[in-house]
Every structure is written in structure tokens, then in C-alpha cells.
Amino acid sequence: MSLTHNTKSKNKLTSQCQNCSLSALCLPISLANSDVDRLDQIIERKKPLKKGDVLFHQGDTFESIYAVRTGTIKTFNITDSGEEQITGFYCPSELLGLSGIDKNIYPVSAKALETTTICEIPFARLEELSDNIPSLKNQLFKIMSRKICDDQQMMVLLGKKNADEKVASLLMNLGARFKRRGYSSVSFRLSMSRGEISNYLGLAIETVSRVMTRFQQKGFITAQGKEISITNLEEMQKLANMIKDYDQPNKDTIK
Amino acid sequence: MSLTHNTKSKNKLTSQCQNCSLSALCLPISLANSDVDRLDQIIERKKPLKKGDVLFHQGDTFESIYAVRTGTIKTFNITDSGEEQITGFYCPSELLGLSGIDKNIYPVSAKALETTTICEIPFARLEELSDNIPSLKNQLFKIMSRKICDDQQMMVLLGKKNADEKVASLLMNLGARFKRRGYSSVSFRLSMSRGEISNYLGLAIETVSRVMTRFQQKGFITAQGKEISITNLEEMQKLANMIKDYDQPNKDTIK
DNA sequence: CGATTGCTTGAGTGTCATCAACTAGAGTGG
DNA sequence: CCACTCTAGTTGATGACACTCAAGCAATCG
User: Chain A contacts of B140, Cβ < 8 Å?
Assistant: First the structure.
């Protein structure tokens, strides 16, 4: 399909892996300089996506994996009954598109939640390159493995957690991801809407809203719109890890 | 059913990839014969696990990935509050342990649901081998990618489906996996208990039981204990794919 | 400004979890 | 062979949590 209006010259834009602030988090971990160069050469920096732009559609032929440089991407698929189900949010330094490798088709769509810049990594060339750079290949195995782990955590969340725990888990998870990139883990701006959060967590939008206000009333967070501050880290951590209060077994004080 | 008790000596048992009935489904796809040989040499057939035996524990150092030859394995993790959450069932020809690559530690435990034989594939050696056999490396990428896809389907199931749809999805999914191995896709024996099914699907055990009886009353399946026959494939398919009956399309509805 | 979009709040309802009792089958032991 | 126990599964009654429907509010926008 369309998009990819690449610039006049689909040229290498300014930044390269070497001086990219994300380099420690992204692919090149533990590669020799010369190897980073070779990787650099196959990566295309594309021009920014605007909010709502689609990076690829469910069903498109798989060509590339993508690294987010700034902004946020969501992946989702459309069920047979026409509903959207969000399967992931991708922040800077994170890789998406890996699920397309298997059938050579993207099984999900990817859309920008805000203005977003990405690096495109043509997979065929990455595969080639990994033939010659074992550490790159191993890095790819690791990245895919991590994705599998993360997804399984998500399954636990969806299968076993209640609404409070789900929302707390998401906020703590996002905080941790901000932290990795050098930002505050307790104070940040959500790039997704309440509707997207609720969809991702398997809740109704009203439920997310209610949980948020409840958290505020209890002093766990402050939230004004998309600006979130976690003000009681300990309680939020307890919720996210599903540690129920069994303290006073005298009666059932609810969580 | 089957169960191949092969020889006494724990090492290189009779079967090898070449004559293994699963070879078309397992790793060796599209490898040259000579390459299959080399793969063969690093694979260890281990002596059968009995029901309840643990293949590896959550937290163990990651050494190998495993292919199921006969029987069934479940993977699960223990949440901080001590509950078990099953994250997958593995049938013959399927690979498990991939989630351990990332941190060099298994993030889940794996336990046999019945007498089960497996092939152990030391990952370090597999990585080495894949340095020299690009098609093997690519095959591994594909396998991991497929796992990511499957897990995402599971997320949709957990996040968006109701009890009927969840159970129908599981039964249809298991059927499809039996079919791939040459068995009936509509008539098979569950190797997991109701409790394991309910845990996996994020339901209460009683709910699974009720759904099953409801399906029987409607004539969708017949079930006696663990023996299942799907008798109304169409309806079950509809449920599994979440096609709701919007009978009267008089109005807007779909998007 | 009305209109639209995103979010919050309220009221009523339904699905599914919980608690509990009961059944069926398998294994044990006298 | 017949209690006895244990486990797995089914069925019923009840209620909670989260969904749905609906209204209201705030901010943005054409």
C-alpha cells in the first residue's frame, strides 16, 4: 500500500545509529563499531508520521521491522466482528513488526498515536547482515525472546488481574519504559487516549475513567488529562504485582 | 494412543529427525539433508517425563529449548500472590523455552500433563549451528515470530472474548493442532484438566464446566470427560471467531 | 457559537466468580 | 467385596465487578 512519501531523496537524514540517543537501547547493543556502520547503512530514517498515520496495515506484505525514535505507535488488529483490539504500544527505542516474519504478512496494523519518527529496517537485508554478524543474530533472538516474555506478562494481566490491577500495571510499565530512556518513571504524559487504554487492557472506557479517579481519591496518582504523576509508588507497585492485602484476616477489607 | 517408549539407553534413541514423524512440522523444515544431520547431532532425546514431572522451573538458568515429541507440556508462572497462571500448552512438534533466551533464565515453569517425550536442543549449540546455516537461522526467526503471533491471538481472546467464545476458541485451536499432525480435528482427547483449561482461559473452573454442558445441550459438541467431539463445526467456528449474531441488520451496526 | 470529541459520573443490569453441595470414578485397605 | 477416601467434575444459589446505557462537562474547532 501507500504512504511512505519519502523525501526527495529518501536519504539518510541527520541522525545515525552512532549518535542516536537511543543507541544503547535499540538494536546495536554490543556490536563493534564497524558492525554498527554496516547496520546503519541498511536502516532508513523515514519522515515523521503524523497522528493517525498508518505505518502498515494488517495483511500487508511484510518488508521491514521498525524502530520507534520519537513518538508512539500502537499495533492492533481488527476482529471478524469489526472491533479493534490493541495488542501493543511502542515507545522510542522499541521494535515493532516482528510478528510479520512468520507468514511474510503483518498480522496487525500499526498506527501513530502522535507525531512519530521511525527507523525502517528492511528485514531481508537485516537477515543477510545477521549471516555475517553472529552477535547481531543473537541480539535479534534476544529481542524476539523479550517480546515473547512481555506478551506473556500481558496474558497474565488480561487473564488474572482486576481493573485496578490492570490500570496500575500499565502505568507502572509505562513509567519503567520512560525511565529506561532517562525520563521520570513517576511523572509523564500518556500518549494514548482513555479509549485506547481501555481497549488494550480489556476494559470499558468508563471503567478506566473510574479507576483513575479512584486512584486520585486515594492519593495514588494525580492525573489531569493525559498528565500522570504516581504519588504512592508502593501502593501502585502492590497493585501492579497483584499482592492482595491479606493482613487483617479478621474481615474482608477490600483492597 | 501413542507413546513410544523407546530403548533403555538414554542417549540417541532410535528415532532421529530424519525418520521422526514430526520432522515436517518441527525445526528441520527446508534444510538440506546434510544440515539436518548436523542438527540431529546436537539434539538429545531425553527419557520420558511422567505426568507432573517438571521440565524446567521458573528462574532456572536457560540452557535449551525443547521440542515435544509425544504428550503435552504446560508452561505457567507463579504470580507474586502465589497463584499459577498457565501461559501455554505444547503439543507434539511444538517448541518451548524460547522465552528464556532474553535473560538467560526461564521466566516460566514447564510441566508434563501426561507421559511426554521431548527432544532437548541446547541453545548455545543451536546458535552456533545457525551461524553456519542461514536457513536454520531464518527458520528460527520464523518460529519465534509465529510464537509472537499466537500470543497476540491469545491476548485478543483474553481481552475481548466471553466465556463461550474462549472455550470454543480453545477447542477449535486444539482441533487445528491435532489436524496438523494427521489426527481428527473434531474428535480428540483433552490432555488438560478442566482446571487447567479454566486457568489458561482466565475463567473459573465452574464456568468452563457450565459452558461445556451448554455446548452439549445445544448439540455443538459431545463430551464425556476428556473425550471431545465437535458436532457443529459451523457454530463453533462462529463462536471462536467472535461473529455475533446481529440478526436484523436493519440499522447501522457494523463498521 | 453550535458542534464535535474526549472524558467523567451515575444508574441499572448481566456475566461470570464465589461458595457450597453433590456425583462419579479411582485408588486404598480391611 | 465393600466401605472409605480423594480427586475431578458438575450443578445450583448468590452476589460482585465491570459493562452498558445515558447524561453531563470541558476543551477544541470549524
Answer: 141
User: CA–CA distance from B224 to each of B189, B208, B233 (Å)?
Assistant: 10, 14, 18
CB pairs under 8 A between A and B: 144
Give tens-digit pLDDT for B14-53. 457 777 777 777 765 667 777 778 888 888 888 899 999 9
Q: What is the pLDDT of residues B215-245, one digit of tens each?
A: 999 999 999 999 999 999 999 999 998 776 6
Non-local (6+) Cβ contacts of A163 within 8 A are: A201, A203, A207, A208, A211
Q: Is the CB of A196 under 7 A from strand D?
A: no
Q: How far is B137 from chain A (nearest CA, A)?
A: 8
Asked if strand C contacts B204 at the CB level, meaning under 7 A, the answer is yes
CATH pick for B161-240 out of 3.30.1490.110, 3.30.360.10, 1.10.10.10, 1.10.3720.10: 1.10.10.10
| Superfamily of chain region B3-152 | Jelly Rolls (2.60.120.10)
Span of A1-10, A101-110, A124-133, B237-246 with lowest mean pLDDT: A1-10
- pLDDT of amino acid A252: 34
Query: What would the grid cell of residue A60 be?
Result: 500487508
Domain residues of chain A, as ranges?
3-152, 161-240
Do B22 and B69 form a contact (C-beta atoms < 8 A)?
A: yes
Nucleotide nearest to A205 (CA to C1'): C7
